[in-house]
Amino acid sequence: MITDRNEHAYLDLLRHVLTNGTEKGDRTGTGTLSHFGAQLRFNLADGFPLLTTKKVHFKSIVYELLWFLSGNTHVDYLQQNNVRIWNEWATAAQTARFNRSEGDLGPIYGHQWRNYGASQGADGSYNNDGIDQITNVIKQIKTNPNSRRLIVSGWNPSEAEQVALPPCHTMFQFFVADNKLSCQLYQRSADLFLGVPFNIASYALLTQMVAQVCGLEVGEFIWTGGDCHIYQNHREQAKLQLTRNPFALPTLTLNPDVNDMFAFKYDDIKVEGYESHPAIKAQVSV
């Protein structure tokens, strides 16, 4: 069996938190085992870091990322494509807390990425006068690749309490060297069993998309976590995952004709060598 050191690093972190994590309370009342501060590195030339010890729903990853990049904050687009990962936060009961209609999530990731700091009209809707951080960072990568300011922030302190779930992945930074693009994410709150595998794949995909439109090769994706935790009701599933051996990572391919960051469609993004693998077929999506 072929193993991959990148996935082993994630499994080592999962094992460390299971063994050494501190028991803490949390907003859900479930309780966690938590560890503060961790980092994982993934060489994207070695393969696409979609975990092989647990099936991760790649379709949801792609549609969610395209949704973020569009700047849209209503769940209609996701629901129309049978992606339900944001439904919990989009109910009438949740959105009514912020005087928004059902399905309107407010200033979450897409808003911060594409319209950061926008003003609001009298009806509470956002004007299109904020900062388009994605467009700006791509322009900077193309024109000033040595910049140390290739940063996109998902955390806006003035709006963090205006959403049901404040951003967990809060800031990412790009780095160009030797014609390769790398990206580092800081994630303030990291659900190691459910959320982090999804986040790793999402930002690895984002990095490859940005690299393509900027005419660069891929370098590393670096994941940095703050409060890294395993929920108490995930302990047994995490232990089961640790009994599995990783196999070779799949390959991500993008439609080479796409050179506009906002022109990517779902069918332009393919992952090969994942769903067809017998070990993945036998697992349950999370």
UniProtKB/TrEMBL annotation:
InterPro entries: Thymidate_synth/dCMP_Mease (IPR045097), Thymidate_synth/dCMP_Mease_dom (IPR023451), Thymidate_synth/dCMP_Mease_sf (IPR036926), Thymidylate_synthase (IPR000398), Thymidylate_synthase_AS (IPR020940). It catalyses: dUMP + (6R)-5,10-methylene-5,6,7,8-tetrahydrofolate = 7,8-dihydrofolate + dTMP. It is found in: Cytoplasm. The keyword Nucleus does not apply. Residues 9-286 form the Thymidylate synthase/dCMP hydroxymethylase domain. This is Thymidylate synthase. It comes from Psychrobacter frigidicola. SUPFAM superfamilies: Thymidylate synthase/dCMP hydroxymethylase. Keywords: Cytoplasm, Methyltransferase, Nucleotide biosynthesis, Transferase. Homodimer. Catalyzes the reductive methylation of 2'-deoxyuridine-5'-monophosphate (dUMP) to 2'-deoxythymidine-5'-monophosphate (dTMP) while utilizing 5,10-methylenetetrahydrofolate (mTHF) as the methyl donor and reductant in the reaction, yielding dihydrofolate (DHF) as a by-product. This enzymatic reaction provides an intracellular de novo source of dTMP, an essential precursor for DNA biosynthesis. Pfam families: Thymidylat_synt (PF00303). The gene is thyA.
